[in-house]
Design a protein that fits this description.
Blueprint (H helix, E strand, L loop, with lengths): L3 H8 L4 H13 L22 E7 L4 E8 L2 H14 L2 E2 H6 L2 H5 L4 H4 L2 H4 L2 H15 L2
Antiparallel strand pairs: 1-2, 2-3
Helix pairs in contact: 2-3, 3-8
């Protein structure tokens, strides 16, 4: 997946419809999440669409997240969030201002509140996982 800044460089030049397409394409770029991991335990609460998030702790101490959604635009938003934290150590994730990294995208004004209402819950779950697994 590309860097968050690179995605924003494209995103800011686009009209609303093309921004939706960019998010959908970004969601398609997510690593496939096995259906066996899409359980109630990995479901992110508070999202209007189903969103699943599964952390994998790597041998080097970094966290790799598998994620999916049953809605294309929501899956793109999930991919954006992951660009801010993917394959980083727990301490780095905890030090990252995820909301700040996403703020240039102005998602709350670009998308309906239904599409963005679960973002804080997903970020909280990522932080809780990093807190639990930090060294």
């Amino acid at each position: 997946m590309t860097a968050l800044n690179d995605v924003f460089a494209d995103y800011e030049l686009l009209e609303a419809d093309d921004r939706y397409r960019l998010l959908i394409d970004l969601g398609r770029s997510l690593e496939p999440m096995p259906d066996a991991l899409k359980t109630d335990a990995t479901l992110v609460r508070g999202c209007s669409a189903a969103v699943w998030l599964y952390p994998v702790e790597r041998g080097d101490g970094s966290l790799h997240f598998l994620a999916d959604s049953n809605a294309a635009i929501t899956k793109g938003i999930v991919a954006l969030v992951l660009l801010a934290v993917q394959d980083r150590r727990a301490e780095e994730i905890l030090a990252t201002d995820i909301e700040g990294a996403l703020s240039p995208f102005d998602l709350r004004n670009q998308l309906s509140s239904n599409r963005t209402q679960g973002i804080p819950n997903m970020i909280a779950l990522i932080r809780q996982t990093a807190e639990r697994l930090k060294g």
